[in-house]
UniProtKB/TrEMBL annotation:
Phylogenetic classification of the source organism: Bacteria, Pseudomonadati, Pseudomonadota, Gammaproteobacteria, Alteromonadales
Domain UvrD-like helicase ATP-binding stretches: 184-485
Family: Belongs to the helicase family. UvrD subfamily.
Residues holding ATP: 205-212
SUPFAM superfamilies the UniProt entry points to: P-loop containing nucleoside triphosphate hydrolases
UniProt name for this protein: DNA 3'-5' helicase
GO molecular function, one term: ATP binding
Top-level taxon of the source organism: Bacteria
The UniProt record lists the keyword Hydrolase: yes
Gene3D superfamilies: 1.10.10.160, P-loop containing nucleotide triphosphate hydrolases
GO CC, alphabetical: cytosol
Organism in which the protein naturally occurs: Pseudoalteromonas luteoviolacea DSM 6061
């Protein structure tokens, strides 16, 4: 018969003798018709398992101790057994506890570490806290039991206090480091974002709050504090320019951490696995060439009469092509529109396919896909012939290699900038890299107020519902903006927060402005821009930077006009760009032009592309609103809006707040 005994008192009942030998412990007595096997290595150590036999036998790993108890002295037997058990296990307990203590002292109490500590404490306390110790042995165990009990019974407040104590200590130890690492001394909130190191961490902060400085300082802190080697830290920036800028700031801070774009990460992984650098298809970098390829391919596919019929039907049903026509007109504007749609769709469709997200469009868009699929096959064949890949392949192939462990990541810390613009495909790659490591860390930095790339697949919910997507995490905010004064901060924040889905952030401005920071002026003459530049040349300090901003490329001054202005007002440093391109940039003065009724854009996304994009937002013009927020927040000293005769509703709305 198998049985288990969990307490010492049970086995000491009626004991007449107990012998401890190299084989184990032999206990004799009234009840001792049992053979116990006490495997000292096993947990819980007080559990006895055995069979009924005339003797009670408990095996020990080393059996040099020898104790014999006579005359049924149960108390003594109990004491001796406890002592024996303590001697055999105390060093293991102390080791476990001191390892835990060392870990807690060295590392921030992240969600992962808390889980480990809790489960270790639970396991140990099952053996050490549930039995009453002979009072003569209490002192022997007191401190160790105390620590164990403390961890085992941690409540929310205790955890918060413990974390706070760690943060305070690190801020103190690394004070000089944080004073110097990023050019200017970091604020407390910036420092805290660095020393808190959770497995999943999101830093949410508005424009100009110094997120980039935190990225640099975080990388520096990780390496300086010995949490990771430089080679174990990977930084990811949204675009080439941002990655270059970040890399140069890393070099200035003498950090040998690499900063990549997602595409260069993809290339790196592919090169490592395939042993050669992948070739990027010509079609990926030249939109016109890609459209020409699609146009020609559709023409050649039309040699098949079924395909021709399907294409004609699609043009009639979706593009109002003349119902009576019997042949596809390859010079029609409808076909040109379809070609553009297909060009956009290729990437979207491939991303969705790699994530297994196509089912929902298959039935609804069958009449569309029946034309698109053969085209995609030809496109893929073309790439294969070229022995080339496109940008979407870079990410999806890299993810596949990481998942299959063909690529082994050395990165224990991945720092991602502009996280609000991450797409599900890119998030999947990051996740695959993180899960490869027992303790992979993600530090995501972003601003849900500046998410402006949904049209190319960015999924804002990856930021706004970070924990749902990435697991238990710490979300932090930065509380100070350095770029612009309080009045511009208030206007821009109120404007963007009209959308109740935006996360409210409490931010204060560091700068005190002289006069209003946002000025709306009627653009009542053709040369209003030139007049404004002349005015700035006269009043602004020499070498002031001026950014001319517009919603669309076509609203920006021509190259020639810009060159002329630059030479005429050479006391200023003038640049011109779209709102999208201005993200992440700043200038002393901005001049926002072209804000007519075409803003916010009312252009509808094609239905099939809409179906493949992340869920749309209920608030009207949500992304256009954020885009205007980006434009408003680029100026360090003053933003001028040159308001056309028929102004955008955004101008009217903001003017009411002035
Ligand atoms: N602790 C600081 N003290 C003073 N200035 C700072 C501090 N941190 C950052 N800055 C300055 O604030 C400005 C904005 O910083 P940064 O570009 O990093 O902000 P950001 O949060 O990335 O902005 P955005 O989201 O608009 O791109 C920069 O001029 C930077 O030098």
């Amino acid at each position: 018969m198998q049985f288990k005994v969990h307490t010492l008192s049970r086995i000491t009942d009626g004991i007449t003798a107990m012998t401890i030998s190299t084989k184990g412990i032999v206990i004799e007595g009234k009840q001792a018709k049992k053979l116990y096997t006490w495997q000292m290595q096993q947990q819980p150590p007080l559990m006895l398992e055995g069979k009924i036999t005339p003797k009670l036998q408990i095996f020990m790993p080393d059996g040099r101790v020898k104790v014999r108890i006579k005359n049924c002295d149960i108390a003594l037997a109990q004491f001796e057994l406890q002592k024996l058990w303590l001697n055999a296990h105390i060093s293991r307990l102390r080791n476990s506890i001191s390892k835990l203590e060392a870990l807690l002292e060295r590392r921030y109490l992240s969600h992962g570490l808390l889980k480990t500590a809790k489960s270790k404490a639970k396991e140990l306390s099952g053996h050490w806290l549930t039995w009453s110790l002979d009072h003569r042995l209490e002192a022997y165990l007191a401190q160790t039991r105390y620590t164990l009990e403390e961890i085992h019974t941690w409540q929310r407040q205790d955890i918060d206090d413990f974390r706070e104590a760690f943060i305070t200590k690190q801020l103190n130890d690394y004070e000089a480091f944080f004073d110097n690492i990023a050019g200017q001394p970091l604020t407390i909130a910036q420092r805290r974002a660095c020393v808190v190191v959770d497995e999943r961490q999101l830093l949410l902060a508005g424009a100009g709050t110094g997120k980039t400085s935190v990225m640099i300082a975080k990388a520096g802190y990780l390496t300086t504090a010995g949490i990771a080697d430089a080679s174990q830290v990977l930084m990811l920036a949204y675009g080439k320019e941002a990655a270059k800028e970040m890399q140069s700031r890393l070099s200035s801070a003498q950090l040998s951490v690499a900063c990549r774009t997602f595409h260069s990460l993809g290339i790196y992984i592919l090169t490592e696995v395939e042993g050669r650098t992948p070739k990027l298809s010509q079609l990926s970098n030249d939109e016109m060439q890609k459209r020409q390829f699609i146009h020609e391919t559709l023409q050649s596919l039309c040699q098949d009469s079924a395909f021709h019929r399907n294409l004609l039907t699609l043009l009639k049903s979706n593009f109002n092509e003349d119902r009576g026509s019997t042949r596809v007109d390859f010079s029609s504007p409808h076909l040109t529109r379809l070609v553009k749609q297909f060009s956009d769709l290729i990437g979207m469709y491939k991303q969705a396919r790699s994530l297994g997200n196509l089912q929902h469009i298959e039935a609804e868009f069958e009449h569309y896909l029946v034309v698109f699929r053969p085209l995609l096959t030809e496109y893929q064949l073309y790439l294969n012939n070229e022995q080339a890949i496109d940008y979407d392949d870079m990410i999806s192939h890299a993810t596949k290699y990481v998942k299959a462990e063909q690529f082994k990541s050395n990165w224990s810390h991945i720092l991602v900038d502009e996280f609000q613009d991450i797409s599900p495909a890119r998030a999947e790659l990051v996740n695959a890299l993180l899960t490869q490591r027992a303790r992979g860390h993600l530090f995501a930095v972003g601003d849900d107020w500046q998410s402006i790339y949904r049209f190319s697949g960015a999924d804002l919910s990856l930021t706004t519902h970070f924990s749902q997507h990435f697991g238990p995490s710490t979300v932090m905010q930065l509380d100070k903006t350095f770029r612009y004064p309080q009045d511009l901060l208030d206007l821009a924040s109120d404007f963007v927060c009209q959308n109740p889905q935006q996360i409210v952030k409490q931010v204060r401005a560091q700068i005190i402005g002289d006069g209003p920071s946002l000025v709306i002026e009627a653009q009542d003459q053709n040369d209003a821009l030139q007049v404004k530049l002349a005015e700035l040349e006269m009043f602004a300090p020499p070498r002031s930077t001026v950014m001319i901003l517009a919603r669309y490329h076509k609203q920006l001054p021509s190259k020639e006009y810009l060159a002329q202005q630059k030479s005429q007002f050479n006391g200023l440093q003038i640049s011109a760009m779209t709102f999208h391109a201005a993200k992440g940039r700043e200038a002393d003065y901005t001049i926002i032009i072209g804000l007519d009724t075409s803003v916010p854009s009312t252009q509808k996304t094609d239905q099939i592309i809409e179906a493949l994009l992340p869920a749309s937002e209920a608030f009207p013009y949500a992304e256009e609103r954020r885009l205007f927020y980006v434009a408003l927040t680029r100026a360090k000293k003053r933003a001028f809006i040159l308001s056309p005769k028929q102004p955008s509703r955004f101008i009217t709305e903001i003017a009411e707040q002035l």
